[in-house]
Amino acid sequence: MNLTxxxxxxxxxxxxxxxxxxAANRVSAAVAASPWTSDSKRVKEIQSVHRTWQSxxxxxxxxxxxxxxxxxxxxxxxxxxxxxxIRLGWAIERLGSxxxxxxxLDRLFDSxxxxxxxxxxxxxxxxxxxxxxxxxxxxxxxxxxxxASVRRESANWLFELRENxxxxxxxxxxIRPPQSDEETLSSFxxxxxxxxxxxxxxxxxxxxxxxxxxxxxxxxxRWWSRRASIGxxxxxxxxxxxxxxxxxxxxxxxxxxxxxxxxxxxxDATLLTVHKRPGDLVVIGEPLFELDGRPLRIELEALTAExxxxxxxxxxxxxxxxxxxxxxxxLRRQSLSRRRDLIVDRMDKLxxxxxxxxxxxxxxxxxxxxxxxxxxxxxxxxxxxxxxxxELEIPEVEIGYVDADADVKLWFxxxxxxxxxxxxxxxxxxxxxxxxxxVFIAKTPMPSGEATRGGNASGESVTPLRVGMQGEATxxxxxxxxxxxxxxxxxxxxxxxxxW
Length: 500
Fold this sequence. Notes:
About 40% of the residues lie in helices and about 25% in strands. By secondary structure, the chain is an alpha+beta fold.
């Protein structure tokens, strides 16, 4: 891309007025008419500067706004003058400003430090010099080039760019060469055509200033102090934290069987046969397991023989007229008969049956055959197959916020994305110790058919919960400020300490 293409492209993009003759043609004409055209070395220097400025105009023309254009211009020029310090600053037209007074530096970009703020010492020093440029009527060393001018100020070279002849907006480029090398910059300035600087000014000021919103935000940032921002932020945080929300109480949840029945050994006996294992469905009256009745049968046979002997003794005594002996034999027979009835009753309990219809959830004695059982020892647990319930462990400090019929949301890792919603049915009046914590137990009914996937109330049928699953529960309490959950206990402890 040559200089003519850059200028034409930028004219179409921004609609700004450029010089009548394209800069590239005028530079070429200036080079052709130059007295140094025959000097090949000088021509090469001019062509080198020409190519350098083409790249600068390219990055300016591609920039979306003036800030990006300034940053790109300084960085690109730093590549051509690597050991030089380059800064670019500009001011926009303000109310009451004139071409010679009222100018204030608006933005400043440094090739080494980046964008400088107003509290920076370099910014403050250059701002003073920026305001004095137009106050000097004909400063020594100033070369006027229409929309652009070049001057030497102390150790700096200043390139001034104006938006128009009235200088409604203008920018300054400060270039400070190394202490031992001013020849490069001097040669660079001498070989720089006037039309190139004018084109640079036109292209730079054709870039739009930041949008209204950014200007407004910049003014707000100037006005806004750190103390004010912290104060407003604190007030906003307090306002948000005081928004009333439903107080949530976290609790541990465990799935238990609703109306489950435990089946225990009815007598002291040895386990003989097991008919059911966990997971098997049972109906009322169906055999679950059998106990060994051989010792009872042996004892029953012995008692039967003794009863017959006592009956004979009673009959013989009555025949001999021995009334007293007959009465003693009768009492002995009655006692033995009572013992026989007890043994018969125990033998009727050798086959243990299911008390309800349901499913066996605990008790696998398949590998414990022949083990002596004690009366009352739990062997199996049977739960109804149509429903389960959830046991909640409510922390002691939160029990005051749990009401009957409060909404509960349950989540169990074992069932993934399933949501369970229910209500508190009952809360035990006394606390108990669970996992070294003092908690209150609450019961919530949870029919397995009410579980829905992803909380969808349409009721997609899912796999029932399994007894023993553990998860997390959230009990919905009364309305309280959002921050109340975190500050309630510290405030209460602090009040206790200070006696409030």
